């Protein structure tokens, strides 16, 4: 299938798009429709010459924005549309060709991702209405982690909560962990045991053995695990009851504080942005220093814990905005893992930034920086599924 795949990531008031050509070297048309439903709705993107554009779309809804996105594809007709869907529950262990039954199943899973799945489905429904003859595929953030064994996905809670209410660990960022671990396999020439660290605004780690996720740091929701931009990651599960009893906070308030006011932003009292924090820490800002220290220690602690899931440990892969661009975070994280026996190549670490791929170890297990490509992976899974369906 040589025609490009249109990748759509639909949020409640935004649509990210990328037209991914079959050849990895060809340029991608990509952009973002944002503030949908408001008077300031607009479409921002990059054309095939690399020029940026902004188009006002006052009052546009998802369907209007999708039609405008199609107009920006410079006459290229996609072979198919790949939709990013956050939660596939236990039903979806891989991508799925979208039909009425798949839409209904995604709707049923909405209780597990009430903010994300309904918004993702808006995009699916609008695209199906606008382009009924285009094949559409749902690619799930959770699917890659469906290979987790029960010892990794079960919480130590009453069995009925799992059986009757699907409460278990699911994991997220699956397309990213799948992409970078497959790339590490290809670069190293092995079917390896990798620990992958996706460090962006959202952050998660994953243990991948021979292409299958064995354990991951996110759980029922994307709040579990690492310190993130504004999310707390792991806290004592008793914290909710404590805040409710002692401060009289409602569930909604607790949810907001843990998801939006915590993480790097909460610890530093300054920003959720690692670039800003690194600058502030250089200038002696105590909150920024603490935030980076906690962040790196928690990444290291998570990697050490996940190493238990691998029969053999071949190395670590860093990805995401922070993982790809911050030699400082990589160095501090490894500094807390001396027992892994990895010697960092300081010069290679400093030079591997700005979307560069590279190996940064001097001795011991391998250490890779591999740029993530969630859109590329969604396009690849979409192509694969459609080829299988037409075979
Ligand atoms: P998202 O999860 O929204 O896709 P990204 O993967 O783009 O986010 O990651 C955003 C994070 O990457 C921010 O904290 C940002 O500060 C950080 N980042 C980007 N460039 C650098 C850099 N040069 N040094 C340190 N952190 C960086």
Can you give me a brief rundown of this structure?
The chain is an alpha+beta fold and 391 residues long. It contains 15 helices and 16 strands.
What does this structure look like?
The chain has about 400 residues and is an alpha+beta fold. The chain folds into two domains: about 5-140, Nucleotidyltransferase, domain 5 (2-Layer Sandwich), CATH 3.30.420; about 190-375, Nucleotidyltransferase, domain 5, CATH 3.30.420. It has 15 helices and 16 strands. It has helices at about 60-70, 100-110, 115-130, 150-155, 160-165, 175-190, 240-245, 250-260, 265-270, 275-280, 285-305, 320-325, 325-335, 345-350, 375-390; strands at about 5-10, 15-20, 30-35, 40-45, 50-55, 80-85, 95, 135-140, 195-200, 205-210, 210-215, 315-320, 345, 360, 360-365, 365-370. The strands form three sheets. It has an eight-stranded mixed sheet with strand order 5-4-3-2-1-6-8-7, sandwiched between helices. A six-stranded mixed sheet has the order 11-10-9-12-16-14, with helices on both faces. Strands 13-15 form a two-stranded antiparallel sheet. A hairpin with a 7-residue loop joins strand 3 (about 30-35) and strand 4 (about 40-45). Helix 1 (about 60-70) crosses helix 3 (about 115-130), helix 10 packs across helix 11 (about 285-305) and helix 11 packs across helix 13. The longest helix has 21 residues, at about 285-305. The chain is globular. The mean pLDDT is about 95. It binds adenosine-5'-diphosphate. Adenosine-5'-diphosphate (ADP) binds next to helix 10 and helix 12.
């Amino acid at each position: 299938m040589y025609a490009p795949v249109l990748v759509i990531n639909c949020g409640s008031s935004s649509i990210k798009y990328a037209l991914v050509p079959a050849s990895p070297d060809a340029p991608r048309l990509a952009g973002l429709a944002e503030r949908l439903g408001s008077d300031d709705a607009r479409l921002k993107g990059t054309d095939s010459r690399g020029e940026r554009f902004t188009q006002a779309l006052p009052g546009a809804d998802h369907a209007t924005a999708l039609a405008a996105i199609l107009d920006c594809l410079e006459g290229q007709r996609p072979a198919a549309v790949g939709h990013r869907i956050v939660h596939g529950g236990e039903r979806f262990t891989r991508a799925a060709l979208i039909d009425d039954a798949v839409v209904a199943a995604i709707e049923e899973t909405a209780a597990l991702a009430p903010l994300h799945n309904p918004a993702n489905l808006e995009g699916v429904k609008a695209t199906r209405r606008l382009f009924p003859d285009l094949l559409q595929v749902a690619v799930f953030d959770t699917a890659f982690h469906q290979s987790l064994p029960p010892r990794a996905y079960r919480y130590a809670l009453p069995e009925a909560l799992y059986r009757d209410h699907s409460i278990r660990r699911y994991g997220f960022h699956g397309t990213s962990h799948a992409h970078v671990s497959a790339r590490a396999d290809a670069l190293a020439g092995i079917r390896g045991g990798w620990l992958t660290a996706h460090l962006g605004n959202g952050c998660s780690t994953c243990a991948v053995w021979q292409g299958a996720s064995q354990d991951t740091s996110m759980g029922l929701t994307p709040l579990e695990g690492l310190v993130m931009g504004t999310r707390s990651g792991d806290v004592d599960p008793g914290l909710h009851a404590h805040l409710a009893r002692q401060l009289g906070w409602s569930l909604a308030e607790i949810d907001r504080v843990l998801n939006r006011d915590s993480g790097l932003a909460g610890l530093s009292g300054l920003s959720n942005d690692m670039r800003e924090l690194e600058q502030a820490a250089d200038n002696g800002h105590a909150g920024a220093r603490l935030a980076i220290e906690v962040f790196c220690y928690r990444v290291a602690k998570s990697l050490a814990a996940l190493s238990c899931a691998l029969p053999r440990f071949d190395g670590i892969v860093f990805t995401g905005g922070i993982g790809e661009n911050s030699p400082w975070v990589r160095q501090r994280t490894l500094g807390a893992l001396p027992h892994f026996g990895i010697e960092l190549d300081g010069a290679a670490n400093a030079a591997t930034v700005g979307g560069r791929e590279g190996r940064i170890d001097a001795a011991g297990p391998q250490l890779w920086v591999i740029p993530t490509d969630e859109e590329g992976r969604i396009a690849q899974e979409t192509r694969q599924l459609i080829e299988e369906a037409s075979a």
